Amino acid sequence: MNATLRRILQVGAWALALALVALPVVALVNGWIGAERWPLRTLRVTDGLERVDSARLREVLVPHASAGFFAIRLDRAQAEVAKLPWVERAEVRKLWPDVLEVRIVEHRPFARW
Questions:
Q1: Structure pTM?
Q2: Which residue numbers in the chain have pLDDT < 50?
């Protein structure tokens, strides 16, 4: 075998090895596999809610949480929560092994009638 062919085979072997390692990681992070193995089971709201509807909050987060622990897009979930009425600021994070934690800062009423 000449040196050029040997070099091509070595590069191909390394590329195959890299693909065999990287593809499962990519599949896990994108939610193609593992969503049923690492589901998010608990929704924890860290501060008491006075004006934000907790049923609506759950309704907004359930589609995001169904992706599983590794595949949930926290930025998208946080943006959806921030769109709810009375939400000034929202922070969504995940805690191992199955918790989705939400912290909401509500708007303060400007006046009372």
A1: 0.68
A2: none
